[in-house]
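Weekly modeling sync, notes
Attendees: S.R. (lead), two postdocs, one rotation student

Agenda item 3: backlog of single-chain predictions. S.R. asked that every request posted to the team notebook include the full sequence so nobody has to chase files. The rotation student volunteered to paste the first one in as an example of the format we agreed on. Action items at the bottom.

Example entry:
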Amino acid sequence: MDTKELGDALLGIPTAKRDEWFKLLADPVFVPIYNYKSWDETREHPLRKMQAIAKSKVVSVKDFGSNPHNIFAAHEFIAMVDGALAVKFTVQFNLFGGSCYALSTERHQHLFDKIDDLSVFGCFCLTELGYGNNAVEMETTATYDAQKKEFVIHSPSTLSQKYWISNGFKHANNSLVFAQTIVKGKNEGVNAFLVPIRDAKTN
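Predicted structure, as returned to the notebook:
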């Protein structure tokens, strides 16, 4: 078995895609930095790596529908480079982007290219301080206002505040918020709501 055959067997992805990743990861932006001088740099360096990945178009949130293995392969390559980058990528392309893709209708199709190029940068708001991932117990509500034809998101208590929101502190401009859905006084269960939070470009 030659090196190409061994690489194909171990990585399990097409040779062209493998080489595309190797070429991308040779970019100097992916060289590790140890002992960052500031918290700002600690946060910005993984962002620059994310931007390089987005610019390369080596992976897309739309791969969940057409080539999910490409998403999984992306995680394998990224995890070899930087744990912080892996978290950032997972939130953008799996938790936020993947959920937007899975729950989407035709009216959401325009979001996917923006998720890919990071102009729609997301965070994932499921966990609550008092309930963890026990979604059925969450307190955050989305109450439909029939006059304004919009949902009002409300976290009524300390325990209901969304928690562990990667990307939310600094870079996200949109959040996918899970909430108890109240329509005409009736709880219709937990649903996800796309909520702009900063200079959002979702239109």
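Discussion: group reviewed the output briefly. The chain has seven helices and five strands.
Action items: rotation student to repeat for the remaining queue; S.R. to check formatting next week.
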